[in-house]
Amino acid sequence: MPTLHCVECNNATEMMTVNEVCTFMKRSRRAIYRWIKAQSLHLNRDAGGRYLICKASLLTSCNNNSSRKRALRLL
Q: pLDDT digit string (tens) for 44-70?
């Protein structure tokens, strides 16, 4: 996972691909894309156009999703 600057957090943070987020959060790609559409995650795009998702936004989102709570317990 590359560490990049997240414009939303205004911090250097780990950025994850959609597949990495699926594995980390134990959720489907469809669920992750719903979160993206709802704008509940901080995003960047890489040179190939793939989404890169801020790991901090996964862990600190206002959304009280049980999968996110589980992720916080894992850390």
A: 888 899 999 999 888 875 444 544 444
> What residues contact residue 49 under an 8 Å CB cut-off, 6+ apart?
none
Which tokens in the block code for residue 56? 């901090």
Cβ atoms 44, 16 nearer than 8 A: no
Topology of domain 3-74, CATH: Multidrug-efflux Transporter Regulator; Chain: A; Domain 2 (1.10.1660)
Q: What is the pTM assigned to this prediction?
A: 0.72
Cα separations (Å) of 12 from 15, 28, 33, 49, 70?
A: 9, 26, 23, 20, 24
Find out whether 25 and 17 touch, Cβ atoms under 8 Å.
no
